[in-house]
Amino acid sequence: MSFHRVKDEHHNTLLNSWEYTMMPGDIESRLSTLGFQPLRLLKNSRGRMTLLALYQNKRVIVKLGWGSGTSQITNEAQVLSVLHDMPIVPRLHTRLDLDDVKLVAIEYIPYKSLNAVGRLNPLKAVTAVFYTLASLVHIHGRGFAHCDLKPGNVIPVPKRGMVFIDFGVARPFDAAGFAAGTPGYTCPEALGGETPGSGCDLYSLAGIYYYLVTGLSPPRDPKEFAKALSLAPAPSSLLELFTQLVLDPEYRNSLDPLQLLKIVASFNPQLLVPHIVIDGVYKPLGYGEVSIGSRGVIRVDGRPVYLAVKRHVRGTSMYAYTDLVVFRRGEKLIVRSGESIDLEFNDLVLFDNHILYVFILPERP
């Protein structure tokens, strides 16, 4: 995937006072007192507002909710507090309760979402869906469904892979009750007030693919969506897979996302080759048992194939290493100095807290 940094021409432009008229109280002065410098209004809806702001010399996304709009703000803060250690979600800077207003400050991701990539050919589109699903596996591994996956909520980011944003309606799999989302992308059971299963996000993948190859949002009705899918440019077997995800709730809720990832990989021969993605760059590996040590040396059947970037200690001739972190289906594994770990399909590896490796290691066909 290519990465496109957002050009922010309004970085130093303060919001006009009229843009606050829908908010209760003197929120502008309260934000200033708390150390926030509003830069730009991003979204303004009933009970909620999203701003780009400066906070502790960093650009952040500030979400505010009041009245009926507080529930999504509170929910997003709770979800991100559980997922915050994974690089595929935005970092949570702070959450505040300002009496009648709930506030959450989240990391600003300065890259364009899949919504802005334009129409892709089927091969590139299935690759984008593949890496989106690769991140989703880890979110599901922590026991959460996003419930509002769509192109605008998935951002390709260097060193991090596909980053998901907007967790306002995300929920644990074991949580009963209502979850909303975006018609056309969110499964009908969630929009209809039923408790969404784990397959609700898999339904969304079909919508993301449809958007990437057509430039159109998917129809809201599943039957109409399936009909539109049949006309989309793609191999017939891939369209059959997406159609089944759309029309068959039992199938999508029983499907293991990791197994689906392997199925999707089969539609791009390059993805079937054991490989790693380093800073967004595809690097093939040989077949065999793959391991990585705490110093970042990757080995295939004992043979070193890539040496990770080392951080030089300023003023010395030494290199510093920190613990290596492996995320396996959301589970966080720590590899201490001198240790190594055998890597598995779709492991996310964070080395030295700076470089993220996404390992996609299918078995030999």
Automatic annotation (TrEMBL):
Pfam families: Pkinase. Keywords: Kinase, Serine/threonine-protein kinase, Transferase. The keyword S-adenosyl-L-methionine does not apply. InterPro entries: Kinase-like_dom_sf, Plant_MAPKKK, Prot_kinase_dom. It comes from the Archaea. GO terms for biological process: signal transduction. One of its GO terms (molecular function) is ATP binding. SMART domains: S_TKc. Residues 36-271 form the Protein kinase domain. This is Serine/threonine protein kinase. It comes from Pyrolobus fumarii (strain DSM 11204 / 1A).
